[in-house]
Amino acid sequence: MHVYTIGFTQKKAEHFFTLIRNSNIRTLIDVRLNNISQLSGFAKKDDLRFFLRELCDASYIHLPDWAPTKDILSAYQKKAITWDAYQDKFLNLMARRSIEKDVDQSVLEQGCLLCSEHQPHHCHRRLVVEYLNEHTGLELQVKHLI
């Protein structure tokens, strides 16, 4: 099963939506805690829903259970915890939430996980895909759209 990830920062809207369209994304899966921030520019939920439908023939869903808590994210952003500590806390959070139990395979196939980070290396969207690969039988093949 093919799944993608993308971050919206350091991308102009034209590049972002071209990546989505050219990858034949069917569903953009928003895994951000806050999907209405003014800092999001074109990536606010209502704008995304419209642009995805009109430009990419794709749908939009928001899965906040696949996002870190505000406390975990804030601690990492303020450098109060390391990436390794953040990763451990987030993996434990996903396990406590049992996110693998409610996975809709039709959403994941040609789906794309969205968050803000430009690169996937230190980003929770990568951790979500890795967690799902480990805890489901889906065998997700991931491609990070940069």
From TrEMBL:
One Pfam family from the record: DUF488
InterPro entries cross-referenced by the UniProt entry: DUF488 (IPR007438)
Protein known as: DUF488 domain-containing protein
Organism per entry: Sedimenticola thiotaurini
